[in-house]
Amino acid sequence: MRWDYSPQMPNALARWWAGVDAGDLRDRLTDVNDGIIALAGTGLGLAGAKISGATSFAVLVITTLMGAFAVFGVQLCEALSHREAQQSTVAREQRLLELTPDEEMAELTEWFERKGVTPETSKQVAQELWDADALSAQLEIEYGIRELTTQSDAWREAITAGLAFLVGATLPVLAMVMVPLPWRSESTIIAALASLVVTSVIIARRGYANATRTALRSLMIGGTALALGYLLGDWMM
């Protein structure tokens, strides 16, 4: 089922939403979920260990900042490695196009034939793509590379990943800090699980998946993680 957001959203917002890459959105909301689960689990672990006050607050702040930095660092390394792999692939394909152009053209033609296109049409399409941009055609057909990752892309992905974790982590931290002590654990659980439901529904709708099943999976995993956090804290103390 394809969701149509135009009746529910202003035109500008609907256009922005339609332009958001589903994969990028899923990755960033996954980082948000990581922040929610990590900090809510840590907070409940501290509650299970009967640790409160300034010590508990310091642990939460340190965990939030270090978690965001870790996500930023991992994403940056991954994006830069991906960029280097792309550059290596581009250099190799450029050499092949210079040294063995006939073989590269044959590979391009064969790819279309394997998809069920007739040999004559395959050769014509391959030739037109070759004439337009041989390197881009080879990169997309052979390696699925449609756009090359730049350094700014890598840094942007890393920064948004770290910020996404930070946003997710802030939600349970606020619940723990702003709610009176007797209700702190309950408010943390409610805030964390409610946030997971919201992010799961957004991910599901943008990816045209089943929102109910996606939310239930997130609740099951998140609830298990929170329970483990509390039990570990209680067991260690």
Please characterize this protein's 3D structure.
There is one protein chain. Helices cover 84% and strands 0% of the residues. The chain is mainly α. It is elongated and about 75 Å long. Residues 1-7 have low confidence and may be disordered. Keywords: Membrane, Transmembrane, Transmembrane helix. One of its GO terms (biological process) is intracellular manganese ion homeostasis. Pfam families: VIT1 (PF01988).
Whole-number mean pLDDT: 88
Q: Please state the CA-atom Rg, rounded to the nearest Å.
A: 24 Å
The string of secondary-structure elements, in order, is: HHHHHHHH
Number of strands: 0
Summing up helix and strand content along with how strands pair, one would put the structural category as: mainly alpha
